[in-house]
Amino acid sequence: MAGRRALKAVLIDLSGTLHIEDTAVPGAQEALSRLRKASVAIKFVTNTTKESKRNLLERLQRLNFDVQEKEIFTSLTAARSLLEQRQHRPLLLVEDSALEDFTGIDTSDPNAVVIGLAPDHFNYQTMNKAFRMILDGAPLIAIHKARYYKRKDGLALGPGPFVTGLEYATDCKATVVGKPEKTFFTQALSDLGCSACEAVMIGDDARDDVGGAQNAGMFGILVKTGKYREGDEHKISPPPHLTCDSFPDAVEHILKNLL
Amino acid sequence: MAAAGWPVCAQSLKGVILDMCGVLYDSGDGDGVAIPGSIEAVQRLKRSDLQLRFCTNETQASRDRFVAKLQRLGFDISVKEVFSPAPAAVSVLKERGLRPHLLVYDGLLPEFEGLDQKNPNCVVIGDAAEKFSYENLNDAFRVLIGLDKPLLFSLGQGRYYKETDGLKLDVGVYMKALEYACDVKAQVIGKPSPTFFQSVLNDMGIQPHEALMIGDDLVNDVGGAQSCGMMGVQVRTGKYRASDERHSSVRADGTEDNLSRAVDLLLHHRGQ
């Protein structure tokens, strides 16, 4: 029954779904080309706090994926559109590599705090500065709230702990803009002219990709590549619309059943 | 309107506990500055029939040095009257045979001398101020995440405090950060932990309902004291913010402009 709705858009996660580090998932390029021949809009959506769209695009093109920059929507893009929408002038606590996605945004006399993963900025002075701004009413915007991530020398703190600390200090709740937030998915669709029930999301993260998308009213397809672990499909309720081996299988399912 | 209420109940009091930073003085460069009237207020309390203790979550200096600073500012105060988290933490660590990884201000390190700190099996976090760098927090995080059961002690859980150049983040913020990162709940040593307040009451040999806490921190001083059965009065100095008087869960028994005013009312109602 779900399959009877006319599908208009497909959202695709990047890392873990199309590629793992610098290797493409086998058959993913061809599957993407097949999908492009169908009449659906495509967007590539990812949570990143340090890679600009241009960085992401260059990697995808290196791996021979047929992608255009305007089709990429990241948590940084989401942060940017929120800033534009509300006409905030942000204090940007993001790594330098992410700054180019905020080109043109007025950052003078800031009245909002944006936090990504930014070890260089997570020092006492900058945290105090951010804290005082929030206490004086500046909104706190988090690119996402990951607890930690893996770096070459071991585990390292993500932005989440610092966001949580500032929330505690100021008794406020951060606006999180990345996956799995509902607004992330609706914003990704906003220029495609379709509603959530006409879209499907493909990703390897049960909670952030599939759970988030389904919570926003979309279909979610979980692929068993990247960070997928046995049994992940049971960790969300309702379960994924479909769980399949990899991106090419997901495309196959869409072409056969959802169009 | 607020003035009429609490001092009436104060007649049955036997002891007063004073918070220090933000009540006696504002910290900042050097020793900071005494809050006007506080030096005399402490003197008047000492001359009264009330017992007096000081209770601080100060963890930037050892208790000896901290008390010396207060004396330089002009306060009549001695080490044995002051309760602070680090000595309390040291007794817990010794009791449980724990080896701490310390994320504390350098000035506090002397309190922990003599404890085995090799191959740590817990983390103790205090107000480390500039030492709250990403790398230092990350080191503490890695110790915790590497333990079978992460064990985190926090010397207080304050959100922020006031220095002469503005509000500064306190240890609670970084405690929350590590709690979130490792999915653990920290054990708080210091205010508002009931154990900590109780140790002060024991020292005075009085019951909770015979004691009054005066502080600038609504949640940790006032709320913490109230949940032990003590009275709690907030002063409008230090980190006080007008919004405290509309707080959703903590309501002070009284709110006064400063310590001097609170002591005036208290002693007046006791006929002193």
From TrEMBL, chain A:
Domain STAS: 1-83
Any one GO molecular function term: metal ion binding
Pfam families on file: Hydrolase_6 (PF13344), Hydrolase_like (PF13242)
CDD domains, per database record: HAD_PPase
Highest taxon of source: Eukaryota
Cofactors named for this entry: Mg(2+)
Keyword terms of this UniProt record: Magnesium, Metal-binding
Recorded GO CC terms: cytoplasm
NCBIfam families: HAD-SF-IIA, HAD-SF-IIA-hyp3
Family: Belongs to the HAD-like hydrolase superfamily.
UniProt name for this protein: Haloacid dehalogenase-like hydrolase domain-containing protein 2
Organism, scientific name: Periophthalmus magnuspinnatus
UniProtKB/TrEMBL annotation, chain B:
Top enzyme category: hydrolase
Gene3D superfamilies in UniProt: HAD superfamily/HAD-like
Short name of one Pfam family: Hydrolase_like
GO terms for cellular component: cytosol; nucleus
Swiss-Prot/TrEMBL keywords: Cytoplasm, Hydrolase, Magnesium, Metal-binding, Nucleus
Keyword Cytoplasm: yes
Hydrolase as UniProt keyword: yes
EC number: 3.6.1.1
Similarity comment text for this entry: Belongs to the HAD-like hydrolase superfamily.
The protein, known as: Phospholysine phosphohistidine inorganic pyrophosphate phosphatase
Species name: Periophthalmus magnuspinnatus
Classification lineage: Eukaryota, Metazoa, Chordata, Craniata, Vertebrata
